[in-house]
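I am writing to request your help with a piece of structural work I have in hand. A protein sequence and the structure tokens that stand for its backbone fold form the material at issue. Please examine both parts with care and let me know of anything in them that strikes you as inconsistent. The record follows directly beneath this note.
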Amino acid sequence: MNESNKTEYLFLKLSLLFGLLYIFIIPPIQVADEGNHFKKAYLVSNLKLLPEMKDGQFGSYYPSSLLEFEDSNTYLIRSVDNKYNYSKFLSDFSAPKSYSDKTFITYSTSKTHPLLYLPQSLMMGIIKVLTIYDHNLMTPGMYLYAGRLGNLLFFIACIYFAIRISPIYKNLILLLGIMPMTLTLAASVSYDGMVIGISILLIATFFKFAYDNNLKVIGRKEIIILCLFAVALIELKSIYYPILFLFFLIPKNKFSTKKDYILKFVYMFFSGIVSHLLWIMTTNLYVAAVGDSSKYISDQLHYIITNPFDFILVILRTFKHLYSFYLNSFIGNLGWLDTPFPYIFILLFALLLIVIAVIDVDKDIRILYKSKLLFLAIMITIVVLLETSLYLIWTSIPSNGGIGNSIVIGVQGRYFIPFAIIGLVCLYSNKLIHLKIVNAIRDKLLKLIPTIAIYTCLLTTFILVIRYWISNAPIQ
């Protein structure tokens, strides 16, 4: 196995081994908002792609037995003294249930695009077909673990190919992929795993198109790939759509003419927008239902428009007050933000990401200052969109802060994972690599990457086991 292949295969081995463990170690509904993601994934697996409206509320008819399954596991949420056990696991996994009795429910993911639940629902469907000879085998636990498996495999495929095709930062992608927060999200039913996987794969694709000298021409195949990414990205998380502006990293000499360069960007950029508009027009899901917080949103938007400089201060103040929370929930505050890692680990892992971004460079690949300005502009744009969207949708609700609140409430560190590389690449420099001491540090640190990655996965496993499975009863 040559040197360039080691990183992606290391990721493949670690993510399969530990990801499969996390699927079963993490009890049901113990990843943030997993209950709502599970509802949507189950419904999509049964081809219920769109919600219904009843009494002015969007929702769906959902099996009562699955509601009971979810409710029976909420006792663990934010209650570190409560534990899961083998008897409960066996009951969730193997006790047959009836799915005929259904109740109309409202839930936060009812209007979410079904595309975000394709891997989870597809695996649920496959397992259902494999157990068709005995319907009793499709227990609530079986549905949940099947959804987690589908999500994990899709995420692994995305990151594996991202490492494989990227001409730079293979080790950085590896570390982001096995980071505690990332891999546990991927091993859940949450769509965050899909969002992170596709975003990182898209960034790696732009790196390849821009910096791989073996790719001489950006032709029809490459643009079709980017158009598919655009369609997926806008439906997954529209705030990450500015990632598409990485297109301007690609040298113009890889296009036949300047007109070809501009047209291909237009095709890519508007393919996602057109597909999203078609989705809105065909589903009518963006018509506000009774009880929606549209009044709060419009009032908050008015505040932002009339007080733009104050809102800039709101964002800056948010980072000042919540930087520690953002860092923790970026790297490793698992579950419902109730399973933190030792802060020393958080700091060291963050430092490692920064150091790798500085020293793990290719001497033959230069990233110009104007390219770094593009990276910086995209990163700032996404951060502002992220903070603004939560300020409108979540902070505006009076119980969460209200109109004109002094900081943004609702943003978590995991929302920064999909575009973290865009910020870190601003540290890329070929100048330091010519220094002997930097080269020596680089060589030693890169040799330690496999050990660090294994240790990180083992520590994550240890923390999950003691959090959810080991009793806090005092030793006699």
Confidence is low (pLDDT under 50) at residues 287-291.
